[in-house]
Structures are given as C-alpha cells and as structure tokens.
Amino acid sequence: MPNAVSHPITARWPAAYPEKLQLYSFPTPNGVKASIALEEMGLDYEPHLVTLSDSDVKSPEFLSLNPNNKIPAIIDPNGPGGQQIELFESGAILIYLAEKTGKFLSQDPKTRYQTIQWLMFQMGGVGPMFGQLGFFYRYAGAKMEDPTARDRYIAEAKRLLAVVENRLEGREWIMDDYSIADIALAPWLNALDFYGAKEVTGYNDLKNVPAYVERFYARPAVQRAKNIPPRPE
C-alpha cells in the first residue's frame, strides 16, 4: 500500500493526494526540468506552486525541505526501499527520477556517465552563466554603466553555445537517445529568448541549437510540463 507524505512543508502546501510524489516548483528553466521529467516518465505527482518571493522560498516550511531556498524540490513518499525521500537540486532530482523509472538514463555504464557528464555541464556551466547573463543583460545589472560583467557573460554564453552547437552536429539529442541531459539543457537554451539575448549571443546564427530547442519543445510531454505548476495570472 502506498505511503503518505509526511513533512513540515505540508503545513504551508498541503497535499491533496499524500500518496503521490510531491513537486514544489515554479516554471523557471530549473523548475521545469522536474515537471518535464515527471511528465516524460509518466509518474503520478502533485504539483505545488512555490513562487520566487521571499515569503515562499524563505519561509520556514520551504526551508525545512530545501535549506538553500531554491526550487525545485520533491518529496517521494515511496522512495528507495519503500521509504520517503526528500530531494532538492534539479540535477539530483533528474538522476533520482531516471533511476526510479529506468527511463532517460542508460544502464550501460559508459553511456550513463557520459549522460551525467552533460547534465553536469548544464548544472555547472550553462545554468549559472546564462542566469548571470540574464541578470546583467535584462534585469538589475543591465543598469550598470560598467559593461565588464555584461560583456563577460555574453562572451561566456557564446562559448557555451558553441560547445552545444558542436556536440549536436549530426545528432538529434545530446546523447544518441533522448535523456535527462536534454531535459536539463534545452530549457536553459530556451531562456535566451526570455532574456531577449538571442541576438547578442549569436543564437540565431547557429544551425544545430535552434533546431534542437524546437525539436525539444515539440515533444507533447514538454508542452504539458512547461507551465507546471501554472504561473499566477
């Protein structure tokens, strides 16, 4: 019989279906990694909208699940060995869900580690660097007169895009088959549109990357998941 979720976070975000995996998220590039994986893998889950406001992510209830106050986070009441597991960090969540379902992470050791390698490329490179680009190009940092930071992150975004462009030469996906590496990477590539930074980074001059992102977002599961939990009106 399925377990029921038990955690302090439910005081603020009650579980209507406590036997299901619980997702606490917001549809940012990091947030949708989890919802896309859950939709692609066909897992039954209950999403909870955690806004990016301090009142949510720095609330005692959310901090009890993720002391780093970032989305996404999950609770699976039926985790390894039938025991509840709580996880934060989108990369860790992707690996866990892939192992739970046996989907989108090869069992072949070489392919498995190479997939994780590209997942870490997103986690350590594309995500942080594109996030800084967004801050210095679109948000508060754009007001700075000194262009040093802005130019740095534009240049780094160009470099990272070139790595992905080269990797995708002759490929549909980052690995031979669709994987959690794609689920991690494509939403961040797509974020350049949100930041209004496609032109400045040379995105539109590339061949493989735009086609890859379009291919990714054409997947039915991605279409369903890209606004889960729904943004407030």
Automatic annotation (TrEMBL):
InterPro entries: Glutathione-S-Trfase_C-like (IPR010987), Glutathione-S-Trfase_C_sf (IPR036282), Glutathione_S-Trfase (IPR040079), Glutathione_S-Trfase_N (IPR004045), GST_C (IPR004046), Thioredoxin-like_sf (IPR036249). Residues 18-105 form the GST N-terminal domain. One of its GO terms (molecular function) is transferase activity. The keyword Repeat does not apply. The keyword Transferase applies. PROSITE patterns: GST_CTER, GST_NTER. SUPFAM superfamilies: GST C-terminal domain-like, Thioredoxin-like. Residues 108-233 form the GST C-terminal domain. Coiled coil: none annotated. Gene3D superfamilies: 1.20.1050.10, Glutaredoxin. Keywords: Transferase. PANTHER family: DISULFIDE-BOND OXIDOREDUCTASE YFCG, GLUTATHIONE S-TRANSFERASE-RELATED. Belongs to the GST superfamily. This is Glutathione S-transferase-like protein. It comes from Celeribacter indicus.
